[in-house]
């Protein structure tokens, strides 16, 4: 078991101790579950009240001023990042599948697999597929023919890369399949969540940029282009040919129609239905998605509709009363 | 083939026959598809009209008074439960995978597997995983390292338990992975639907309580706690660290943000987006989710908006007419 | 490499050349990615501006009149269908899994597999399942016991057919599983997208009609009936016992409650929540779903709510001013 004093951790994380730096830390845990000997972290202000009742021996938090607490604090620039580092101090070697190809995986001899790659149990890597160095495939990942995954990527269980795009031409009372002869190209340092599906392009490529992180059960349609360093939360759906620039965030269960463009650093709220392009730095929400300020304003007005109906009814009565007053003769 | 009279079934189910109890029953079917010799059931009042036209030889229904029908009735306390029992009378041994580990499954020698467990084709059970007695894994289930499933559970095909939580820290223009070193702990008598994903905790455990039933394609984020005897319908998404108490019902495609609490017996309507905690026995719906009564009231007002605009226009004309009347002199 | 003149392609596709028919075509590509030597197509008017800047050597488009372009056009009745055909001219043999059963697949000896069927790596076909001739199963497809798939179907990776329907009876504080003893019956020429799940019926059959195309991550509940030649876009959820007639279109992420009926040629907008039956040729959208015209009208009124509140406030002031005028004496 690894043990560090809080002061030692402060050096490792580049932070400052408020309180007793000599306390011994032996593990990490969530703020509600932590026991004596654990360090925890406070990144979300909802959990601020737990500062008073946590059993943790220390708490990583931001540098903003804070009321005095019993528990020693370790103040840092980015608590979540510091927490990530401290996890590695106490659990330096979390479980990962071994490097190499699991004997139950089916890897085409015509696929190209980089150095230090791990391909988990029952993965299927088809002909012409390429996998960059240091990439991990958990079990049950499917990489279809001619599709590419970059370096240092992580593909979680059940991911399907390169399934056919959903393209049909209607003629004479039935749908005819449009051959999907493009591929999928995924950059470096990309993570894709469990059971997510990324369709191959009709022609050309469906693309995911470097450093982008995709959660579970996401659907990415054919010819979609996702930029670099973007976040796509669980159960999002992106329709064909839509393009995301870099540093975009899509909240959970959001849906984007096809053939639109989401600008750099734009944020789409969870569950939103986006029906037109969003400019860089735009923040949209709702269905159909509107700029966040407009959405909130309209939503506040909707909450006040019952009163508005009542006010209108009152006005009608007051105007009726005025109208029932006898009409004056014209001033001559 | 098994044959019972309706009177015999009434004894088995603890119900009462209305009509001819001597009729022979040889099978079960839906009310629209049933043929002579079948027994069917009426649990949803939408199907009441089918009572008059079903070809079934008998219908299981509730004890409430009912107009006379041609078809004999078997009145019980809980028609759906009675139907379940009668299915077992006529199909005592529905197909289930055999007990034991299918030769194509990959089970770590460091996993603990209880008695009478069935592990289907191509499942992957990683090291440190634990499976309780009498649990069934259909094919293609993945149970990652250190995760636990209780007794008498059913895991449907494609379920992923213990994939990494979606946690990243943003620093210097890119996202850094926060190691997910917790696990998933699933209680007894839990059922999890096809291709559903349950992420492991960042630290500590993602938890599913005893007797909870989860449908297909559901996403459960890291550190979520689901209580006992709850129902989570298909395509629901629950974000990280949200907690459900017991006997909660989440309708299909509902989405819950992270770090909130859903009280005992609360009901979340299908497709709702829940952005704050719900008290025990609360019923919420819509996006953002509101108490059902408020949602319905606001929705009714929205439907009447066209009239409200017209009424306002009328008022403006009437007030204009009043204003155009000559101003009287002040009463002295 | 295959080379055709544009005039030769016009004969193959039954179209008319506008411009130079002698130009040589050697491949196909999207309008933005096309290089000299490629033919592309214009089916979506959003891309009309690209006509002026594409590097393609020719463009397939509709027969409607069009401003003069530098690039030669090939005018046809259905550009998307023509594009599909031209893809086959230049890529006559896109990759498909080989006919036969992959050695890693697990196929019950009690399953019936038709002629010229391809069953990909790690598929599981249980006892009593039936697969029609010329059907392709990509890797990791699960066809559970007694379920049927017709001829010339395509099942994409991770599809689960025949998982248990989500049926429980609540009694004495817990949910009891209702045995799901029906099956799934899929017609001919059906395509099912990656990681989609189709549950078996409680009794009888969940049915998918001929020629219907289903996208990725769709959930189809027990006893659902989908008609022929319908389109179900990604992440749609259909609750138990709902019926779709023929030629229905469901937009992405739409959700349908159980026990309703969607009429022939009806269209459900993306992300809609459908809570009651839709007549033939109906077009509904929103949540709760309304006829498209009503939805658009109400939505326009909602956008104008801020002004309506202001107009009401103005009216209140004007009526107040009128009321403050001295009351006249009654006309005698």
Question: How would you describe this structure in keywords?
Answer:
homotrimer, eleven-stranded mixed sheet, nine-stranded parallel sheet, 332 residues
Overview of this protein structure:
The structure is a homotrimer of 332-residue chains. Chain A has an eleven-stranded mixed sheet. Chain A contains four helices and 37 strands. The first copy, chain A, is of the alpha/beta class and 332 residues long. In chain A, 16% of the residues lie in helices and 28% in strands. In chain A, strand 19 (168-171) and strand 20 (174-177) form a beta hairpin. Chains B and C meet through helix 2, helix 3 and helix 4 of B and strand 19, strand 20, helix 3 and helix 4 of C.
Q: What's the Cα radius of gyration of chain A?
A: 28 Å
Main beta-sheet annotation of chain A? 11 strands, mixed
Number of strands of chain A: 37
Low-confidence stretches of chain A: none
- Strand line-up of the largest beta sheet of chain A: 8-11-14-17-22-25-28-31-34-36-37
CA distance, first residue to last residue of chain A: 103 Å
Give the DSSP E fraction of chain A (strand runs of 2 or more residues).
25-35%
Helix content of chain A: 10-25%
Envelope shape of chain A: flat
| Helical run tally of chain A | 4
What do the pLDDT scores of chain A average to?
Answer: 93
How would you describe the oligomerization state of the chains in this entry?
homotrimer
The largest contact between protein chains, plus residue counts on each side, is: A-B, 67 and 69 residues
What is the SS-derived class of chain A?
Answer: alpha/beta
